[in-house]
Amino acid sequence: MKKIAGLFLLCFLSQQVFAQSNHQSIIDSLKQAISTGNNDTATVLSMVELADQYKFSNVDSALFYGQKAFVVSRKLKFYEGEYKSLFILGYALSMTGNSTRALELELKALRITEKYNFTIGRGQILNRLGIIYRSAGDFSSSLFYHKKSLQLFNSSRNYNMAVPAEVYLGMTYRALNVLDSALFYSLRADKKIKQYGDSTMSCPNLITLGRIQLVKGNVQPALNYFQQALSDGYLIDQYFFTSIANIEIAEIYQQAGQRDSIIYYAQRALDDAQKNGSGLSIAEVSIFLSSLHEKSNLELALRYHKMAVAALKKTNKLDNLNAIKNLMAFDEEERQFEMATTKASYQNKVRQYALITGLGIFLLIAFFLYRNNKQKQNANALLHHEKEEVNTQKLKAEEALSELKSTQAQLIQSEKMASLGELTAGIAHEIQNPLNFVNNFSEVSNELIDEMNEELDKGDINEAKVIADDIKQNLEKINYHGKRADAIVKGMLQHSRSSVGKYEPTDINALADEYLRLAYHGLRAKDKSFNATLNTDFDESIGKINIIAQDMGRVILNLITNAFYAVKDKQMQIAEGYEPTVSVSTKKINDVVEISVRDNGNGIPQKVLDKIFQPFFTTKPTGQGTGLGLSLSYDIVKAHGGELKVKTTENEGTEFIIELPVNKNES
Amino acid sequence: MKILVVDDEADVHPLFIQRFRKEIRSHELEFNFALSGEEALKYLENNHSEVVLILSDINMPGMSGIELLSRIRQEYDAPPPVVMMITAYGDDENYQQAMQKGANDFLTKPLDFNLLKEKLNQITQ
């Protein structure tokens, strides 16, 4: 019996699963060996083997025998049994999907193999770790462990043992969709499998090769690989893998729509999964079959569905209840073992500690003296360094601040110049018009004086007086238009000047009217096709209010220019039936003067409405606006103790209202 | 010869009257004034057959001189009146646009009345 157990142990680590008929007889003989044995190392190995037999079909039993093997191994200090029982416990747990706990046990097993130099066991555990990580979706860890296994077997010259690692590397790379690497490892493994005649890894490797071809779109070669996998798998009763190969083939036929073949292979997949006993496999295949029959045979579909549910329930139950509960025995053993180890080492340690403490105290005193001195030096240096650092930072911040201030000043100036540019053409027009009158009225007056003299010579005093009246009127006109030109030039200079203006009593109506004309002609000069109706409604009762005229003029100009821009924009969109209109009005309500600039443009979209007063916000194309106009306007109105408000309706227009207190700025 | 002067500046009226006082006195020329393009069109509705020459500013609130020119060229072609544009913008683009729209001549402000008189003489001859 022991011999049989030992024989099977040789291959207990592989996924090989034996035929159903063999399966039961092996289990019976193993149970026999365990019950007649007297808890020696051979019994342990039999228990491990029994757990291995149960790992797919009855996880509960696998866990039971695995733990028993572990507890006995501990007592006997039988390390081989210890790592093998841990290994099989981890394996069985991973079947329930509890990969965290499985990893914990496998890592414990790995430490034992490292400590006591079980090279082969170590390589196999490394592969197991790789498999668990792959199924958990952590492909890089999976590759890490499989490569470690491959390296271990190659360096210890166990070349045939290295084959599984290569097969698994192929699988992981395939799952990662890194096909070149997948193909490299799978083909190399395939060659070695044939060379060494190792049939256990043949079926899974052929499945990987088939899957690679499938991804590459080579259906026929894929089918050939899967068929080969089937025949190799059936040869040694690897129903876990044959079930997978059958499903792959069924899915290929599903793509091709060959229903008979689909059902045939799917049915075989189910048979194999049942023979293997893995609940998850059964469930997966049953669901496939259920959906296959869904449209043709509802009753059959339902039956498969129920089968899947039953299989899943079984797995879940194991996972949630028994499997975890059953591990309590294992945990208890672990705890006691650790306590015993701690106690033994405690007495040793007490002696050691006494010695070390004595020595330590001396060292400590010496160390502290040294460190204190050193620390003082360090602290001084650090303090000095920090102080310097703070100073540099402060200087940097100050520099940045002054740079910012000068940039801001430049920007404000450039905004002024930009709006001046908009004015220039308007100013030219406005100066040429008064000049036209100045030149021509003075010339004509000159002629009139000659005529007057002629009349005087003739003695016609009355006619001379009429002409003199005309000349007087002309001189008044010359004076008026000369002053008009003067005011325009002064306004332009004021506008561009960066010095701080003074509060002066100002006729807000005249100011608004002047800038309306300037802005209009400025725009007309640039765009001949532009045209708009201008409405003005000035409240003559306002009188003069105390403002910085050049600043408020800039605000009004900015609002009017924006209004023109808005109606021009809409005019370009709607050619017919749109009359661009800009209205400027003033109104006195109690102690507040309102200056309103209204357009019938497209309005301001709600999403940008709260941004329009922000510096540098502009909807104009790059280079056409500084984005400072409204921001500066807002600041200027605020500085006057007033408010700049906006009302807008999309597609109907916008109204900006400047509210200024009448009394606030009285000097 | 009946001349219509279109300009939004009201002082254009006394200026022309004084500058052409001799021609007006001798009934060589008769002047009418409009303060906007719209007013000019309204005047032409009733008097277009009498008006021989139109002198128009370009930059005016509301209808511009160029627009007025286009309307005149569209609506009054029998006989087509002579239209001269007078503007403060003597740039080439303005000139080209005015000529393209059918202006007979193009004068800049400040207006040279001697030059204008010469041009009027050419028309009457």
Quickly describe the structure.
The complex is a heterodimer of chains A (667) and B (125). With 667 residues, chain A is of the alpha+beta class.
Overview of the structural elements:
The complex is a heterodimer of chains A (667) and B (125). Chain A has 667 residues and is an alpha+beta fold. In chain A, 74% of the residues lie in helices and 7% in strands. Among the domains of chain A are: 118-245, Tetratricopeptide repeat domain (Serine Threonine Protein Phosphatase 5, Tetratricopeptide repeat, Alpha Horseshoe), CATH 1.25.40; 253-319, no CATH class; 504-661, Histidine kinase-like ATPase, C-terminal domain (Heat Shock Protein 90), CATH 3.30.565.10. Chain A is built from 21 helices and 7 strands. In chain A, helix 18 crosses helix 19 (549-573). Chain A is elongated. A 5-stranded parallel beta sheet of chain B has the order 2-1-3-4-5, with helices on both faces. Chain B has a single domain (2-124), classed as Rossmann fold (3-Layer(aba) Sandwich). The radius of gyration of chain B is 13 Å and the shape is globular. Chain B has helices at 12-19, 21-25, 37-47, 65-75, 92-100, 113-124; strands at 2-6, 30-34, 51-57, 82-87, 105-108. Helix content of chain B is 45%, strand content 22%. Chain B has 125 residues and is an alpha/beta fold. Chain B has 6 helices and 5 strands, in the order βααβαβαβαβα. In chain B, strand 4 (82-87), helix 5 (92-100) and strand 5 form a beta-alpha-beta unit. Chains A and B meet through helix 16, helix 17 and helix 18 of A and helix 1 and helix 5 of B.
Strand content of chain B: 15-25%
Shape of chain A: elongated
The main β sheet of chain A shows up as: 5 strands, mixed
CATH superfamily of one domain in chain A: Histidine kinase-like ATPase, C-terminal domain
Which structural class fits the helix and strand makeup of chain A?
Answer: alpha+beta
Spell the H/E element sequence of chain A.
HHHHHHHHHHHHHHHHHEHEEHEEHHEE
- Which two chains have the most extensive interface, and how many residues on each? A-B, 28 and 23 residues
Q: What's the N-to-C terminus distance of chain B?
A: 12 Å
Radius of gyration of chain A: 49 Å
Class of secondary structure makeup of chain B? alpha/beta
The strand line-up of the biggest sheet of chain B is 2-1-3-4-5
CATH class bucket of chain B: Alpha Beta
* CATH architecture descriptor of chain B: 3-Layer(aba) Sandwich
How would you describe the oligomerization state of the chains in this entry?
Answer: heterodimer
Tally the structural domains of chain B.
Answer: 1
Mean pLDDT of chain A, to the nearest integer, reads 83
